[in-house]
Amino acid sequence: MSQHRTLFSVCSVPAEWVYPLRSAVLLEGRSDSCRFRGDDEASTLHLAVYQDERIVAVATVCREALSGSVSDAEWRLRGIAVEEGLRGYGLGRLLVKLCLDHVQKEGGRLAWCTARETARKFYELLDFVSFTPPFTLPSRAGVRFYEMHHVLPGGHGPDVD
Ligand SMILES: CC(C)(COP(=O)(O)OP(=O)(O)OC[C@H]1O[C@@H](n2cnc3c(N)ncnc32)[C@H](O)[C@@H]1OP(=O)(O)O)[C@@H](O)C(=O)NCCC(=O)NCCS
């Protein structure tokens, strides 16, 4: 009896390669807004998980200070998206861990993200916390977001006045 084994691999990719899944999963298929500030910075990391030859999960982390901060040790996690049929298998956790490893390697002390309500628990399980009330964005009416922080080893909370 032959068995088909699915092979997953993860690697860093150019920004353009994460856009299709980012658009499909996070932006309801819109491609006009799939480029984020920081995507093209040299320090930014874009990760893709491949199932055989196909990208099935993506994540990005870029250096970006929190609002009101001028710290260069704060990094933003963005565009974490796992194809629907492959959720719950640890791909999201793996991508966040690899992004945090990158932040640490680059001397970052705090990672943050804007988590939609439906993903809040996922981030909490990965030791992200939110201190402020939820907010909405003009571009995403009806969706509640939370700013969530993860302090890296040796780091501390936000450098906000
Ligand atoms: C949120 C998302 C990235 C999680 O990826 P995933 O590969 O399914 O997550 P994992 O399998 O690594 O899950 C890690 C843990 O979080 C839990 N979890 C994952 N998604 C969750 C969710 N939406 N709500 C509650 N818990 C969740 C898992 O059960 C698992 O818990 P366990 O370790 O106790 O078993 C994925 O569901 C997704 O792409 N969702 C749509 C896009 C999105 O919301 N992205 C985040 C933007 S803010």
From TrEMBL:
InterPro entries: Acyl_CoA_acyltransferase (IPR016181), GNAT_dom (IPR000182). One of its GO terms (molecular function) is acyltransferase activity, transferring groups other than amino-acyl groups. Residues 1-153 form the N-acetyltransferase domain. Keywords: Transferase. It comes from the Bacteria. SUPFAM superfamilies: Acyl-CoA N-acyltransferases (Nat) (SSF55729). This is Acetyltransferase (GNAT) domain-containing protein. The lineage of its organism: Bacteria, Pseudomonadati, Pseudomonadota, Betaproteobacteria, Burkholderiales.
